[in-house]
Predict the 3D structure of the following.
Amino acid sequence: MIPDNWLITGGCGFIGTSLIAHIIKEKPDINIRVLDNLSAGSRGNLLEVTSFVEKEYSVLSDGPKGIELIVGDIRDYAICLQSCRGADIVIHLAANAGVGPSVENPRLDMEINVVGTFNMLEAARFNNVNKFIFASSGAPIGEVEPPIHEEKAPKPASPYGASKLAGEGYCSSYCRTFGLKTVSLRFGNVYGPLSKHKNSVVAKFFKKALSGDPLEIYGNGSQTRDFIYIDDLIQAILLSLKSDIEGETFQIATRKETTVNEIAHMIQDMVSQATGKRVEVVHSQSRLGDMKRNYSDISKAEKILGYKPKFDLYKGIQNTFNYFRGVF
């Protein structure tokens, strides 16, 4: 059963808008409050999936009514506290995302991903929120022999990985100390429709290819990732809400290892065949903190949550291409 009253931080972003579109389709009378500082997402992104009413956080006195947008920053505790009023669940997606930005400005990464997550947990605790879902990543594990799984000791290789590990730690402690039902989901590399504003690998490659620009790969392209289609990720979020499990961390991916070169050439061929455009692939210097290999063992999520990815990579990439072709 889908809860009635939601707070989604970062809800104007790719994952947030995709999730909102899905749950509105399942439950049209849902109440969702979105908290977003619009640094990555936008009002326009949210309007792609729903109409909404924009409100000031200072006037909030109870739970959300319909779809609401609060423009605010999770680094401001007062905003977090008011935004959680009347929420049954919190989906905490807001973050300083990616290795690159964390290397460029590790302090900002810490303030958003550590202090911001702490603020949201405190606000959820104070407002007696029933469940708190934290969007984590494979980055806390660091450079280890894959597949990565929940029992491997974390050794973050980037500030981003360290900040997400801190978030997982706070979620665990708030569950065990204060009884807040938390679940941390370590997302694989998410891709799919509605990602036109993203700068992740698949979205960036499609935008470059359709614009006639070369696909730039950092390093030799042999680095691997576990690419997960957005619908499979939403499945995992909903399963974690319905489950009685709390205080746990789950790898949410596909158990399939794919090189960046493979993704680039798949997109190169797809765009070339459909549009006739010549798509070039180029290589540049490797980035600090990037993991060489990364894919997940999802056995724990399969066994405990009943999670089972449904989209193979080619089908997911094809769906994503159809979306990008319509907007570029």
